[in-house]
Amino acid sequence: MSIRKISGGVCAARGFKAAGVPAKIKYEGRNDVALVVADAPCAAAAVFTTNAVAAAPVLYDRVVVKGGKVQAILANSGCANACTGEAGYKDAELSALATAGELGISPKHVLVASTGVIGRRLPMDRLLAGMKDAAGKLARSEEAGLAAEKAVMTTDTKPKQAAVQTKIGGKTVTVGGMCKGSGMIEPNMATMLGFITTDAAVTPAMLRRALKLAIAVSFNHVVVDGDESTNDSVFLLASGAAGNAVIDKAGADFDAFVEALTAVGVALAKQMAADGEGATKYVEVRVKNAKTQRDADRAARAIAKSPLAKTSWFGKDPNWGRVLAAAGYSGAQVVDRKAEVFYGKAWAYRKGQVADAAQLAKLEKEMQGPELVVTVDLHLGTYESTIFTCDFSLDYVHINADYTT
Amino acid sequence: MSIRKISGGVCAARGFKAAGVPAKIKYEGRNDVALVVADAPCAAAAVFTTNAVAAAPVLYDRVVVKGGKVQAILANSGCANACTGEAGYKDAELSALATAGELGISPKHVLVASTGVIGRRLPMDRLLAGMKDAAGKLARSEEAGLAAEKAVMTTDTKPKQAAVQTKIGGKTVTVGGMCKGSGMIEPNMATMLGFITTDAAVTPAMLRRALKLAIAVSFNHVVVDGDESTNDSVFLLASGAAGNAVIDKAGADFDAFVEALTAVGVALAKQMAADGEGATKYVEVRVKNAKTQRDADRAARAIAKSPLAKTSWFGKDPNWGRVLAAAGYSGAQVVDRKAEVFYGKAWAYRKGQVADAAQLAKLEKEMQGPELVVTVDLHLGTYESTIFTCDFSLDYVHINADYTT
After folding, report:
1. For residue A394, which residues of chain B lie inside 8 Å, CB to CB?
2. Considering only CB atoms, which chain A residues are within 8 Å of B303?
3. Which residues pair with A36 in a beta bridge?
4. pTM of the entire structure?
5. How many CB atoms neighbour CB A4 within 10 A?
């Protein structure tokens, strides 16, 4: 299967329009209401936060998505509509109904998504005015996709989009998406707000299965701070406009689709990690040759979550002891006399041997750049796991001490 | 049972001497080698890190403590003697043997403890010179106890000691201790370096049981950054000098002893949390009325570990949404419409109701001081849990980005 990266986001696949507008939900002069709209009802799948405190839009969407068909998503930043009780649920429902009315589509086919401060009611007048404004600006262009992406950003410093093309049954299929990430990212099932569209023809059941597989190695492998939010959601809409034979079972077509979807998921996941709150460095943690898959995942995740390891990356300090200690308390089998730790291509610790001055100089060089690969080779088996993460900087504390209530 | 707080640390109980001296293990002009020595072999118990990457002194001590008798502990800061392989194990063994020789006691009764940088060999010449120096300065005084405590501190900014007295079978029993904490604190069984002495007469078996009970609600309820170290150890030595009838089974005497031991453990635990790396605020997280004990523990721990909650405490921001969200992803049952969140005595969130401007003013007032109690009332059952923790400040990042390799 050959996958080709292309530019664009939610408008890359045929059959989708988007818009993003400023509606003063929280701040002046920035986009904060987005619409993603399909030409016709699409097969749809979604994965939501496993947090017991789920936001109103998540509670609402869980019901909608069970129907398997979606035509529009209304999203806003600046207000999470979480911990807002019955009234908040009604706000979510009302915004979906109003969107359906404005677009002339079935209210059963509209999802809503919110991100921002917890415990505040949605400013419904401004949200609905923004939705109407966005509906009038819907377009099938890269600019429209980017405007929608900008409207879902919170503390994100960069827009995050990715798109790929592949061939399925002789037809060119496109998968594209956008997401917001930044803080509160420790995906466990779902993670953040993600919107992926495709023109592949896929049944809702196979779409759910594909999304689960792709998320398992992309969004679910991003760690910023270990906090899982109340609003995390990833949506996947398939228009079928590519004209491929409907994917309704496992097989080569399904595998090709999952591969393309995973490529988009991983590209978005890496962008999220690199733009983690206050991040100065994108870090990829790779645990190799673990005894079991669970050991590999646990060790990699523990390293990526360790504040001590993360601050050492920020300080450009090859403190491999913290990395190995995190693997050690993860629950994974670790035998320190067999293990190795690398920063980039340079080893820091090798089966009991510790870096000397010459090796330390190499290590410090590896830590200077904006990207760092930290590898732990456990030499106990054949399993591996990669986590996409970032360092922990002074700015993380600044951002989160000052973010408002 | 009435428990009375008294001053002092490891020398508070009868039968123990201590000393702390500077030996240039890592830095100039500060104590870094300590001895705690009993007049005769004591009943002993210890709890060690569960980290799979355990330091050489931990591996060595596990064997020694199985004998149930200990007379001396040699401790150093500046070098953890972790990930140092066979050679590091021999260093630990040799320092215990040398200490026994210097003190004229059995080498089977000597424990060793190290804290500091991982992956460096102990500077044996300086360590042994320091040990001899300390042996010559052993004294039964508060000053000697404090000198020993200062020698085990790393990034600790304050010495941590606590002592209490109680009556057991008509005799006055004293329990006293010292500890080092600061970073890398997420106790799971053991936590940091803790040294507790008592003049109670207790069998090794009952001492182990008492230590386990006391640690479960004290050291194991401290969270600073969620990292469990390679060296965490808590030692408990009982001289029997109080002259009480030997505690060799469960009953009133055992309960009284556990109560006194727990009081010392909790006092040390709170000091550790308050002096967490970079902490500007001591925070006590209380989860009340959880459905199960496990739910209460999980929710309190998740809140105490959440970087988002911790940075909001640093920023004096009553961001209860992050607190409730952390409870939500902890795995505990949480129903946000039934829950309440308090900062000090002021409520921030009450069963769907959110603080208005007047209430926010009260909340901001509660967050100004050096101590903060964050309470989450789940209203789902009768179980509760308290975690001792601190905020997450800019200085945490400074300290850990700059701490050396």
Report:
1. 394, 397-398
2. none
3. A18, A73
4. 0.79
5. 13
